[in-house]
């Protein structure tokens, strides 16, 4: 493995997604590469913030609600997977470990779907949980991408924001930490910066001070992102000055 390839392993190393051989090789590389050391530190912090952003404390009544549903919901029969086709391609432990870790992270982050599940009718619980799981999987995949790059900035009242972009997936994730609640009837809206034109990229949940969001839309035409305060429901174009503008990390 050459030096150029080693530089791409920062994200997988930060998420403990390397094989034993790759891990040992990359740690030797870290002893002589300050840039990779800094990038690993930033990605590890981002992964931690994502975990905090989606974690919730289940209410006391959740246990009773689940126990009541057990008697009324029929268990699905076990699924027998179809035999895998042999393609002749060589198995690569490193790639599999990265995929497995991303799936594990997504499963853990998907527990955030409990907050949605408990406020919906039981008939809607599975659909809501599946949507939350898909969102969490995409968040984890962006973080685990070999080319994931992170930028951290200061917002307002001591809040921080971390922007992670993975051009190989054409996606970006934004993590807000310690952000004050917006005024009543307002919401924080995210924008992608396309050569000075701001494109809507999602909303932050007004009731949360820490949250991870997968930015809506491709990032290949964008150079960064911004945040504004908008009327509830969001706006097609910014109606206020940006709280912060962040550029995508390039190194």
UniProtKB/TrEMBL annotation:
Protein name as annotated: Regulator of SigK
Q: Where, per UniProt, does this protein localize? A: Cell membrane; Membrane
Secretion signal span? none
Q: Which membrane topology term applies here?
A: Single-pass membrane protein
What stretches pass through the bilayer?
99-117
Query: Which PANTHER family would you find in this protein's record?
Result: ANTI-SIGMA-K FACTOR RSKA
Q: Which Pfam families match?
A: RskA_C, RskA_N
Organism of this sequence: Streptomyces hundungensis
Give a yes or no for keyword Glycoprotein in this entry. no
Anti-sigma-K factor RskA N-terminal domain mapped to chain residues: 6-41
Keywords from UniProt, A to Z, are: Cell membrane, Membrane, Transcription, Transcription regulation, Transmembrane, Transmembrane helix
